[in-house]
Amino acid sequence: MAPIAYAYHAAALCDMVEDYFGKSEGWSILHANGGYRWFLNALDTRLAPPRRHVWTFMEPAAFLALPAEVGGTASGVHDGGTITVTATAGDLHTGAGFQPFHVGELLQGTGLAADPMIERWISPTQVSFTGDAGSEFTDETINVPHPGVIDLPESFGGLVEKPVYIYDTAYARPQFEQVSPEAIFIIHRRSKTFGTPRFYALMAKPFTAATGQRWQIMFAPRTDVDRVVRLRYRVQPAVLTDAADVFPLGGPDHFETIKWAALAHAEYWLAHAPGVCNGRFQELLWASIDADMVLYETDRAQK
What is the mean pLDDT of residues 82-103? Predict the structure, then answer.
């Protein structure tokens, strides 16, 4: 087989494994991912006992918006003294929508005769309040208070540090305190008062096989104005696919290490024992770890 062109994407990684072992296309994706996981889990065997190295590139920063309101358009239909409000577009329709705790809060909108109080929660897209035919409306812009529960990035695998408010001259920016989800629930139960969020809690979303594990972050009290926080989190990497537009974490600096990790994984699979490829992978892994620690020593000095 002719030598392959050197590149830094997952398709090239698979080609290298196939080329080294003389295997057909498609055989290598298992070992590309297996070696990639060996690299990401980075067990530094020079230490006694061996200890896992945490890569700096697996701890990115993200900005998280804390909105005060959830908005959209909705229509209200009268029936027997009750106005049933149905969200038709916007975040109220496609996002978290109406929540049971919105009962007792005001439904606000420029096209409403007044700001009626929500009396009954029906579903994420429907609520109702007492009213007559004169209270009907069609495709009006409305909003309700935000629930204070926000989805974290799909790749979220844990917080590295507490969230931190960005600079703002108009609003307070206190330090956050982590509490349990129950504590957040209790704060929300005790008061519907809005203010400056000071507490947060992480909570797993209900698991679905189609998306995998996802997470949310909850804040209390619920914010009275739109705010932004910055946080760093641990990445849960996606599975590699044999494609030229899919790149492993680490970039070109660590691609040689990832390549030999994939070769070592295939070698172990075929021989059921570590071999030459594993020895080369260990050497390159130590070099990658050292480079990661030196290049990002400012970050490491804080840990």
Answer: 84
The mean pLDDT value of the chain amounts to: 89
- Provide the pairing of β-strand 199-204 with 177-178: parallel
Are 240 and 33 in contact by the 8 Å Cβ rule? The answer is yes
d(CA 138, CA 35): 57
Question: What is the chain's alpha carbon radius of gyration, rounded to the nearest angstrom?
Answer: 26
d(CA 129, CA 127): 7
Topology of the domain comprising 69-145: Thrombin, subunit H (2.40.10)
Residue with tokens 């892994």: 285
Q: CA 292 to CA 232: how far, in whole Å?
A: 18
Q: What is the pTM of this model?
A: 0.79
246-271 average pLDDT score: 94
Q: In the chain, what are the domain boundaries? A: 10-53+250-300, 61-66+148-235, 69-145
At residue 3, does pLDDT exceed 50? no
Contact in structure between 60 and 154 (CB atoms under 8 Å): no
Q: Rounded to whole angstroms, how far apart are CA atoms 177 and 43? A: 32
